[in-house]
Amino acid sequence: EEGIIYFPxxxxxxxxxxxxxxxxxxxxxxYVTYLEVVLPVxxxxxxxxxxxxxxxxxxYAQKYSGGETVKVYxxxxxxxxxxxxxxxxxPEHLRTDxxxxxxxxxxxxxxxxLDITVTESFTDRQISGTADSILxxxxxxxxxxxxxxxxxxxxxxxxxxxxxxxxxxxxVDLCNIAGYDCYVDADGDFHFFKRGSRLNTSEAAVxxxxxxxxxxxxxxxxxxxxRIIVYGEDATGLPIIxxxxxx
Length: 247
Hints:
The strands form 4 sheets. Strands 2-1-5-6-7-4-3 form a 7-stranded antiparallel beta sheet, with no helix packed on it. Strands 9-12-11 form a 3-stranded mixed beta sheet, covered by helices on one side. The protein is globular and about 80 Å long. By secondary structure, it is mainly beta. The protein is built from 2 helices and 14 strands. The chain has helices at residues 131-142, 167-178; strands at 14-21, 24-27, 32-38, 47-54, 69-75, 82-95, 100-108, 117-122, 147-151, 160-166, 180-184, 189-194, 227-233, 239-245. Helix content is 10%, strand content 40%.
Protein backbone atom coordinates (compact mmCIF):
# COMPACT_ATOMS: atom_id res chain seq x y z
CA GLU A 1 0.00 0.00 0.00
CA GLU A 2 1.13 3.52 -0.69
CA GLY A 3 1.84 5.73 2.29
CA ILE A 4 3.81 8.67 3.58
CA ILE A 5 6.48 8.55 6.24
CA TYR A 6 7.39 11.92 7.71
CA PHE A 7 10.96 12.46 8.82
CA PRO A 8 11.42 14.94 11.70
CA UNK A 9 12.46 18.31 10.35
CA UNK A 10 15.60 20.07 11.49
CA UNK A 11 14.19 23.47 12.29
CA UNK A 12 14.16 26.17 14.93
CA UNK A 13 11.09 28.30 15.37
CA UNK A 14 11.76 32.02 15.20
CA UNK A 15 9.15 34.38 16.60
CA UNK A 16 8.62 37.98 17.64
CA UNK A 17 5.88 39.65 19.71
CA UNK A 18 5.14 43.37 19.46
CA UNK A 19 2.64 45.44 21.45
CA UNK A 20 1.67 48.90 20.23
CA UNK A 21 0.24 51.48 22.60
CA UNK A 22 -0.50 54.83 20.99
CA UNK A 23 2.52 55.75 18.87
CA UNK A 24 4.90 53.44 20.74
CA UNK A 25 5.66 49.87 19.69
CA UNK A 26 7.36 47.58 22.21
CA UNK A 27 9.24 44.42 21.26
CA UNK A 28 8.54 42.13 24.25
CA UNK A 29 9.90 38.93 22.72
CA UNK A 30 12.65 38.45 25.29
CA TYR A 31 10.08 38.25 28.11
CA VAL A 32 7.77 35.68 26.47
CA THR A 33 7.50 32.39 28.39
CA TYR A 34 4.24 31.18 26.84
CA LEU A 35 2.69 31.93 23.46
CA GLU A 36 -0.40 30.37 21.90
CA VAL A 37 -2.09 31.53 18.71
CA VAL A 38 -5.42 30.02 17.63
CA LEU A 39 -6.51 30.61 14.03
CA PRO A 40 -9.83 28.87 13.32
CA VAL A 41 -12.04 29.20 10.25
CA UNK A 42 -15.74 30.07 9.90
CA UNK A 43 -17.11 29.19 13.34
CA UNK A 44 -14.81 31.26 15.55
CA UNK A 45 -12.63 34.36 15.67
CA UNK A 46 -8.90 33.92 16.27
CA UNK A 47 -7.20 34.57 19.59
CA UNK A 48 -3.79 34.80 21.20
CA UNK A 49 -2.54 34.13 24.72
CA UNK A 50 0.83 35.47 25.87
CA UNK A 51 2.62 35.27 29.21
CA UNK A 52 5.47 37.66 29.97
CA UNK A 53 7.84 37.16 32.91
CA UNK A 54 8.73 40.69 33.97
CA UNK A 55 10.96 42.00 36.75
CA UNK A 56 9.27 44.37 39.16
CA UNK A 57 11.09 47.36 37.73
CA UNK A 58 10.09 46.56 34.14
CA UNK A 59 8.42 49.41 32.28
CA TYR A 60 5.91 46.90 30.86
CA ALA A 61 4.69 45.53 34.21
CA GLN A 62 1.78 47.96 34.50
CA LYS A 63 1.81 49.56 31.07
CA TYR A 64 -1.00 47.74 29.28
CA SER A 65 -4.63 48.12 30.30
CA GLY A 66 -6.50 46.77 27.27
CA GLY A 67 -7.10 47.80 23.69
CA GLU A 68 -3.44 47.81 22.66
CA THR A 69 -2.48 46.16 19.35
CA VAL A 70 -0.65 42.83 19.45
CA LYS A 71 1.32 41.46 16.51
CA VAL A 72 2.88 38.00 16.44
CA TYR A 73 5.47 36.99 13.84
CA UNK A 74 6.55 33.36 13.46
CA UNK A 75 8.33 31.14 10.95
CA UNK A 76 11.30 28.76 10.62
CA UNK A 77 13.73 31.31 9.20
CA UNK A 78 13.91 34.85 10.56
CA UNK A 79 10.63 35.41 12.44
CA UNK A 80 9.26 38.07 10.10
CA UNK A 81 6.05 36.35 8.92
CA UNK A 82 3.05 37.94 10.60
CA UNK A 83 0.60 35.26 11.71
CA UNK A 84 -1.59 37.25 14.11
CA UNK A 85 -2.77 40.80 14.70
CA UNK A 86 -5.35 41.72 17.27
CA UNK A 87 -6.19 43.70 20.37
CA UNK A 88 -5.60 43.09 24.04
CA UNK A 89 -8.87 42.14 25.65
CA UNK A 90 -7.67 41.19 29.08
CA PRO A 91 -4.28 41.93 30.71
CA GLU A 92 -3.85 40.03 33.99
CA HIS A 93 -1.02 40.70 36.44
CA LEU A 94 0.13 37.76 38.58
CA ARG A 95 2.75 37.98 41.33
CA THR A 96 5.59 35.44 41.38
CA ASP A 97 8.78 35.01 43.40
CA UNK A 98 10.78 36.36 40.47
CA UNK A 99 8.57 39.38 39.81
CA UNK A 100 5.41 39.82 37.78
CA UNK A 101 3.81 37.53 35.22
CA UNK A 102 1.72 39.49 32.77
CA UNK A 103 -0.85 37.28 31.07
CA UNK A 104 -2.34 38.81 27.96
CA UNK A 105 -5.40 37.54 26.12
CA UNK A 106 -5.89 39.16 22.71
CA UNK A 107 -8.61 38.73 20.12
CA UNK A 108 -8.00 38.71 16.40
CA UNK A 109 -8.64 41.98 14.56
CA UNK A 110 -11.69 40.27 13.02
CA UNK A 111 -13.34 40.58 16.45
CA UNK A 112 -14.43 44.05 15.29
CA UNK A 113 -16.94 42.26 13.08
CA LEU A 114 -18.75 40.88 16.12
CA ASP A 115 -19.95 44.38 17.02
CA ILE A 116 -21.34 45.18 13.57
CA THR A 117 -24.94 44.33 12.66
CA VAL A 118 -26.26 43.93 9.13
CA THR A 119 -29.75 44.79 7.86
CA GLU A 120 -30.07 43.84 4.18
CA SER A 121 -32.31 41.96 1.78
CA PHE A 122 -30.66 40.12 -1.12
CA THR A 123 -32.86 38.78 -3.91
CA ASP A 124 -32.44 38.19 -7.63
CA ARG A 125 -33.98 41.61 -8.25
CA GLN A 126 -31.22 43.42 -6.35
CA ILE A 127 -27.46 42.91 -6.44
CA SER A 128 -26.17 39.60 -7.78
CA GLY A 129 -27.35 37.09 -5.23
CA THR A 130 -24.29 34.84 -5.11
CA ALA A 131 -22.56 34.21 -1.79
CA ASP A 132 -19.29 35.82 -2.88
CA SER A 133 -20.95 38.97 -4.22
CA ILE A 134 -23.00 39.30 -1.05
CA LEU A 135 -19.86 38.93 1.07
CA UNK A 136 -18.07 41.57 -1.02
CA UNK A 137 -21.07 43.86 -0.63
CA UNK A 138 -21.42 43.66 3.14
CA UNK A 139 -17.66 44.05 3.67
CA UNK A 140 -17.54 47.19 1.53
CA UNK A 141 -20.67 48.68 3.14
CA UNK A 142 -20.30 47.60 6.77
CA UNK A 143 -16.59 46.81 7.30
CA UNK A 144 -14.63 48.95 4.87
CA UNK A 145 -11.45 48.60 6.97
CA UNK A 146 -11.21 45.03 5.66
CA UNK A 147 -10.44 43.78 2.16
CA UNK A 148 -11.74 40.90 -0.01
CA UNK A 149 -8.78 40.01 -2.20
CA UNK A 150 -9.11 36.25 -1.61
CA UNK A 151 -12.85 35.70 -2.07
CA UNK A 152 -13.51 32.86 -4.51
CA UNK A 153 -16.44 32.91 -6.92
CA UNK A 154 -19.72 31.09 -6.28
CA UNK A 155 -22.13 30.42 -9.15
CA UNK A 156 -25.39 29.60 -7.35
CA UNK A 157 -27.65 32.50 -6.40
CA UNK A 158 -29.32 32.75 -3.01
CA UNK A 159 -31.99 34.84 -1.32
CA UNK A 160 -31.23 36.21 2.13
CA UNK A 161 -32.89 38.62 4.52
CA UNK A 162 -31.01 39.93 7.56
CA UNK A 163 -32.39 42.25 10.22
CA UNK A 164 -29.78 43.56 12.67
CA UNK A 165 -27.84 40.31 12.42
CA UNK A 166 -24.23 40.26 13.69
CA UNK A 167 -21.81 40.52 10.80
CA UNK A 168 -19.94 37.29 11.47
CA UNK A 169 -23.21 35.34 11.75
CA UNK A 170 -23.98 36.60 8.26
CA UNK A 171 -20.62 35.25 7.11
CA VAL A 172 -21.44 31.87 8.68
CA ASP A 173 -24.80 31.89 6.83
CA LEU A 174 -23.01 32.44 3.52
CA CYS A 175 -20.52 29.66 4.30
CA ASN A 176 -23.27 27.19 5.18
CA ILE A 177 -25.28 27.99 2.05
CA ALA A 178 -22.32 27.80 -0.33
CA GLY A 179 -20.41 24.99 1.38
CA TYR A 180 -17.49 27.35 1.86
CA ASP A 181 -15.13 28.30 4.69
CA CYS A 182 -14.03 31.79 5.62
CA TYR A 183 -11.41 33.49 7.74
CA VAL A 184 -9.76 36.89 8.02
CA ASP A 185 -5.97 36.90 7.85
CA ALA A 186 -3.53 38.96 9.90
CA ASP A 187 -3.74 41.82 7.38
CA GLY A 188 -7.54 42.07 7.54
CA ASP A 189 -8.20 40.32 4.22
CA PHE A 190 -11.11 37.90 3.81
CA HIS A 191 -10.41 34.38 2.54
CA PHE A 192 -13.59 32.69 1.25
CA PHE A 193 -13.12 29.31 -0.43
CA LYS A 194 -14.82 25.99 -1.02
CA ARG A 195 -14.66 23.72 1.99
CA GLY A 196 -11.95 21.09 1.57
CA SER A 197 -10.38 22.76 -1.47
CA ARG A 198 -7.20 23.99 0.21
CA LEU A 199 -4.27 21.55 0.16
CA ASN A 200 -1.40 22.28 2.53
CA THR A 201 1.74 21.11 0.73
CA SER A 202 4.32 22.63 3.07
CA GLU A 203 3.23 21.49 6.55
CA ALA A 204 1.92 18.34 8.21
CA ALA A 205 0.69 17.36 11.66
CA VAL A 206 3.09 14.63 12.75
CA UNK A 207 2.87 12.81 16.07
CA UNK A 208 6.01 13.10 18.22
CA UNK A 209 7.20 15.97 16.04
CA UNK A 210 4.94 19.01 15.91
CA UNK A 211 1.71 17.43 17.17
CA UNK A 212 2.10 18.30 20.84
CA UNK A 213 -1.31 17.28 22.14
CA UNK A 214 -4.40 15.65 20.70
CA UNK A 215 -7.23 15.21 23.20
CA UNK A 216 -10.99 15.37 23.45
CA UNK A 217 -11.62 13.11 20.48
CA UNK A 218 -14.67 10.91 20.28
CA UNK A 219 -18.17 10.79 18.89
CA UNK A 220 -20.34 13.68 20.06
CA UNK A 221 -23.87 12.33 20.42
CA UNK A 222 -25.43 15.31 22.18
CA UNK A 223 -27.28 16.31 18.99
CA UNK A 224 -28.16 12.75 17.94
CA UNK A 225 -31.79 11.95 18.75
CA UNK A 226 -33.61 8.67 18.27
CA ARG A 227 -37.10 10.10 18.50
CA ILE A 228 -38.54 13.46 17.48
CA ILE A 229 -42.07 14.62 18.32
CA VAL A 230 -43.62 17.56 16.46
CA TYR A 231 -46.72 19.29 17.85
CA GLY A 232 -48.98 21.50 15.74
CA GLU A 233 -52.48 21.89 14.35
CA ASP A 234 -54.23 21.48 11.03
CA ALA A 235 -56.10 24.12 9.03
CA THR A 236 -59.20 23.70 11.20
CA GLY A 237 -57.29 24.10 14.44
CA LEU A 238 -57.30 20.44 15.45
CA PRO A 239 -54.11 19.40 17.24
CA ILE A 240 -51.62 17.18 15.43
CA ILE A 241 -48.87 15.10 17.03
CA UNK A 242 -46.34 13.43 14.76
CA UNK A 243 -43.57 11.13 15.97
CA UNK A 244 -40.58 9.88 14.00
CA UNK A 245 -38.23 7.22 15.33
CA UNK A 246 -34.90 5.87 14.08
CA UNK A 247 -32.72 3.35 15.88
